[in-house]
Amino acid sequence: MSRQYLSWSIAQLEEEFERAQDSGDRAAVEKVVSELGFRTTPKARSLLQAAERFLGTAERPRSEQRGAAKPPPTAKTGPTQKPPPNAKGKPSRKPTAEQQQAIDQFQRGGSVKINAYAGTGKTSTLEFLAQSTSRRGQYIAFNRDIVRDAKEKFPNTVNCSTSHGLAFKATPWAYRNNSDKMTKRINANQLAEMLNLRRWDIDRRHVLQPRSQGYLILDTLRRYMQSADAELAAHHVPRHGSLLAAPDATMRAVTEFALHGAKHVWGRMRSEADTMPLGHDGYLKLWALTNPAIAADFILLDEAQDTNPVVLDVLRKQPAQMIYVGDKYQQIYEWRGAVNAMEKIETQGETYLTTSFRFGPAIAEWASKLLVFLGEKRPLRGNVAVKSRVGSVEPRTILARTNASTIAAIIECLDEGKKPHLVGGTDELMEMLRGVQDLKEGKQSTVPDFFGFDKWEQVVEFAKSGEGDHLLSFVNLVEGRGERQLIWALNRTVDEERSDLTISTAHKAKGREWSTVRLTDDFLRSQPGKPTSGPDPAEVRLFYVALTRAKEAVEVPQNVLSLIR
Fold first, then answer.
1. Whole-angstrom distance, CA of residue 564 vs CA of residue 519
2. What share of the chain is helix, strand, coil (3-state, %, to 5)?
3. pLDDT by residue (tens digit) across 494-542?
4. 120 with 97: CB under 8 angstroms?
């Protein structure tokens, strides 16, 4: 059998599965399943399971999947008739008092914010809302795995999709018919070649090689495409690496160059006839610029505390009833431009979910101390039926604040003869370490933190300055261990199911939970040169996320606990 999707990435296969699933195109799903049978990554296996569930293969042997007689046709009900709201089964339990308040607010018809603390049954609450009405709904989440899970739980009256999925389906056929145009990405090297970029001596201290110029243009475009802005502007131009300390005259020249290049590339991206790929952020932005109307009576936005401005702008213009669901104290992506809709949006109704099903009172008590620091008066209550504690543990999972601490934990795990798994994979860290190698060879890197530097020694010097203190832990690790040993360690990580220990940054751990967790000592550290009146609220929110990943026990270093007693 020929492999029609042999050259497709897993992201392209996910897009095709979503399209086929929503349109009921069983033949297309079967082709996706056929290709996934050749893939072995955890993401491919997860997608294969979802596709097989859609086809019903999980319940019947493979020998029956092909060539079986089709069941007799059922009576036609007309194309516009919708299945009953409980077509996929109602939740197995009754709503709690807090969940019932959310249902009551929803049924009044106005816009609602549901503030859901960590582990408080956010997903089941959304199911209750969806099951309580026969109106058409649209559920939106950022993560495809969450969307796939929602499709199995929500009634057939609710369409479940990522924001990119909505945009993909609405993109004109002339774009969608070209998978390379839609989903391929162009890197900085490729762009530099396409634009015939040459070395640029901006001033005596700042030189940008073609690859760095290409990256600057692409990152300017990325910031624009994720924003709510209609036009490219100076504030979309990033200030990375050596540019953080660049004089105003240098930044004016850089901004003019980046804007000119970004406008040129964006024009080519929008052209149906041009080979310049749009990419996922590109077709999302195109969709947003059309001021789309989402076909739904109500819209459920999940994880609303970390929403791209471009998506939030689309949703604010919808005539449908809006339900924003999230935990404003779990906003952890503000640094990359995400908007906290739980704080930014005013709604007609507001409710709270404050009782956690995940952990008991001991963990909830410490989490509540963090909420008090952040100005919250409502405590997080633990599940009295769950025994949990804060103290020393033999962890199944280690969570760290920084990439440097995750690598250190991996090396320690390997030294003990154990097999580590790194949540989210090793690509990001490998890119940083290859960036170190490039700099040591006198080549510029497209790693944002190394942008504009020509030598590794410049990064070391920068890290010891006030501007680059966020790099100090990583630089010290590279200087102490060497990038080759760090790459060696990352290459020895394994899939989670084969691991003895799971290791993650707090950012990558968002949305996950484990039985026993140990936190590293790099949380809530004050930065050199910054006021010491207390931890940065953004750091407290990240620590709150990390602390609440544990179900049974969590170990927190004493130096961190002392900051929140």
1. 15
2. 45, 10, 40
3. 999 999 999 999 999 998 999 999 999 999 876 555 555 678 899 999 9
4. no
Topology classification of domain 389-561: Rossmann fold (3.40.50)
Q: Which residues pair with 519 in a beta bridge?
A: 399
Rounded distance between C-alpha atoms, residue 407 and residue 95, angstroms: 43
Q: Which helix (H) or strand (E) holds 207?
A: strand 207-208
Query: Does residue 266 sit in helix, strand or coil?
Result: helix
The first and second tokens of residue 118, run together, are: 């960590």
Q: How far apart are CA 364 and CA 257, in angstroms?
A: 51
Q: Round to whole Å and give the CA distance between 397 and 174.
A: 47
**CA dist., res. 320 & res. 293, Å (int):** 9
Q: By mean pLDDT, which of 46-50, 112-116, 312-316 is the weakest?
A: 46-50
Handedness of CA 141, 144, 146, 151 (dihedral sign): positive
Q: Identity (one letter) of the amino acid at 186?
A: I
Nearest to 162 by CA among 140, 191, 180: 140
The identity of residue 546, as a single letter, is A
Query: Residue 192, SS3?
Result: helix
What number of other Cβ atoms are within 10 A of residue 178's Cβ? 15
DSSP 331: -
Q: Given the DSSP bridges, would you call strands 321-326 and 137-140 parallel, antiparallel or unpaired?
A: unpaired
Torsion of CA 337, 341, 344, 349, to 10 degrees: 180
| Length of the chain counted residue by residue | 565
CB under 8 Å to 294, separation ≥6 — which residues?
Answer: 138, 166, 314, 318, 320
Q: Please determine, looking at this structure, whether the domain spanning 85-183+280-355 carries the CATH number 2.40.50.140.
A: no
Residue type at 1? M
Single pTM value for the model: 0.82
d(CA 416, CA 414): 5
CA dist., res. 122 & res. 496, Å (int): 26
- The model's pLDDT over 19-63, given as tens digits with 9 standing for 90+, comes to 777 666 788 888 888 888 888 777 788 888 888 888 874 344 433
